[in-house]
Amino acid sequence: MDIDLEHPAERIWRALTEEKLLSQWLELPGFAPVGEAEVTGIEGQRRLAMLWGNDELSTRLVWELSPTPDGATLTLRQSCVYGEWEDEEREEVRAAYDAVLHERLPAILDWLAFQEVDLNAPPPGSPAGPVTEVIPFVAPADHRKPRARWVVALSTAGLVLVAIVVVAALSGGNEEAPAAPPQTGAAPSPPGISAPGGVAGLGTGAASPTPSASPSTTPTPSRTPTTAPTREGTTAPAPQPVLAAAYETTEQGLLRPGFEGEVTVRNTGKGAATEWAVVVTLRSSVARVTDVSGANFRQEGSKVTFTGAPLAAAASLTFQFEIGNSTLGDPGPTACEVDGKPCS
């Protein structure tokens, strides 16, 4: 059977090889569940062969993908290895395939395509660069008048403050103000308030500019610069750790989706590393960590963060992990970093 699909071959290959996706659309009557299929051959992302059947009938399925200008053509060939179809059974299987390939598979592909859509991207034909939409702010009716009264009050207070500053500047800058008539027994001006043409705290009737002989109760701050105390010694900086990591794919899943990897973390610095983190980026966001030995992990989408015990200076440690639910023939992660530095 041949079917033309308006999707790229890479997306169709995911639907064929990722177990979680395959089990959502490939379901035929009279056969064992898809999880029990045995993959017998794979050629890049173009051809996939598998054995599928039950105790009475075993068949070989061969899927082939051929790119087209509008997407790709998916070709299915199925033949009996042992056992034989009756004519009626053959027609039932063909009818089931027809519904699966024309309804269930396109639905899964459309769902995958929707996940790849960038909702923040500008629409086709729009000018390049971000588009800013200006939305005018309209204050609620019940808040407009109180806000206006506050604005008037603040504006009035501002004008009063400006007037006070101007008057103070004019009075302080008038050097030719007439002297006040001499007063006998006048009380001194209150501290902190300057009499016109005088100095704060002094009367204006004195003939001599010599300040009052009475001792001042306010200490005069010394203007002599002080010298900061000299430190007896300087503490040497603590030794720092220097981390590096090496990654290796120890087993590649040719007959099952996934792979196994190993990471060695080394501390080449002179200080101990109280904590460390190795971030591994997987090729598929649906791939999952199924087993870890020698470290803890946290997975967010396609990124997996491994952490572990403190690492002493000049020491190293190794941990292993297993990835499942990935594509067949997955060669390993796309990136590996330790503290922001790439692994070797």
UniProtKB/TrEMBL annotation:
Q: Does the keyword Transcription regulation apply?
A: no
Which organism does this sequence originate in?
Phytohabitans maris
Going by the UniProt record, its keywords in alphabetical order are: Membrane, Transmembrane, Transmembrane helix
**Compositionally skewed regions (Low complexity) per UniProt:** 206-237
The entry sums up its family as follows: Belongs to the AHA1 family.
> Does this entry carry the keyword tRNA processing?
no
Q: Which residues cross the membrane?
A: 150-170
Q: Identify the Gene3D superfamilies for this entry.
A: 2.60.40.290, 3.30.530.20
Name of the molecule in the record: Cellulose binding domain-containing protein
Task: Extract the ranges annotated as region (Disordered).
Answer: 174-239
Pfam families named in the record: AHSA1 (PF08327), CBM_2 (PF00553)
Domain CBM2 residues, every copy: 236-344
